[in-house]
Write a structure and sequence with these properties.
This protein has 245 residues and is α+β, with helices and mostly antiparallel strands. The chain contains four helices and 17 strands. A hairpin with a 6-residue loop joins strand 9 and strand 10.
């Protein structure tokens, strides 16, 4: 089923995403050397209590935390543990909330201190190239190709096992939005669709594995990874980024 949203639903989903974006901006500014990953979980608890919102990641398929905090070789689903950020680390924060049945979903990666941020910049560029391709009449693989081609041209690769997805009235909806052209259903993009576009780039092999915590996904070869995500509405006027301040 294609989950097409009404204009009113899109507006409500945008409001939730704007609020989620406020928290991600807070996390971006807070991320610095000496900060522990678990401090972002504490920030999320305070934020959700203050705004009376439900953290949509918590207990989703058993996930034990309010948000995902991934560092360096951790691609996605990193747990907010006691790891202390240091100069040169890459940190990715992925967060979503739910209000009255409307969902947000977005993520960023930041280079801490004086480290190299080439993979971070390239991943963010991939995100916006994917968004640019999210217009009515195009298909999912137009987004996938825009992301994949830019990653490869800049010496990186994309993770195959984890992909973007439709969203808005549930955290994860169909269809999937891969970051490479696969053999899935190449749906035509239609006004009213809301999709989470989330390129995940790696500096080495795209092969990944899950750690013993059963959640944290890391690169198989220990190479760095970066991850960005926006929730985007497909409209007759072009893509509308819902999760951007």
């Amino acid at each position: 089923m294609i989950y097409l949203k009404t204009p009113d639903q899109i507006n409500q989903i945008e409001k939730v995403n704007k609020l989620g974006a406020e928290f991600l901006q807070e996390c971006y500014e807070y991320a610095r050397p000496g900060v522990a990953k678990c401090e972002f979980e504490e920030l999320a608890e305070i934020f959700c209590e203050k705004h009376k919102v439900r953290p949509s990641f918590y207990n989703y398929k058993g996930f034990p935390n309010l948000l995902c905090v991934s560092v360096n070789e951790e691609v996605v689903h990193g747990e907010p543990n006691d790891y202390i950020l240091k100069d040169g680390d890459l940190i990715s924060v992925d967060f979503g909330i739910e209000i009255d049945g409307y969902y947000s979903d977005a993520a960023f990666t930041k280079c801490i201190g004086q480290g190299s941020d080439i993979i971070v910049d390239t991943t963010e560029e991939c995100l916006y190239l994917g968004i640019k391709a999210a217009i009515p009449g195009n298909r999912i693989f137009d987004i996938s190709s825009a992301i994949y081609d830019h990653a490869i041209q800049n010496g990186f690769d994309v993770v195959r096992q984890y992909v973007g997805h439709a969203t808005g009235l549930a955290l994860h909806e169909k269809p999937s939005i891969p970051n490479y052209v696969n053999f899935g259903i190449n749906w035509k993009l239609r006004p009213g669709m809301i999709i989470a576009i989330e390129p995940m780039l790696v500096e080495g092999s795209y092969e990944v594995k899950t750690l013993s915590d059963n959640w944290t996904v890391v690169t198989m070869d220990g190479g760095l990874s970066a991850h960005f995500e926006h929730s985007v509405a497909i409209t007759s006027d072009g893509p509308r980024i819902l999760s951007k301040l």
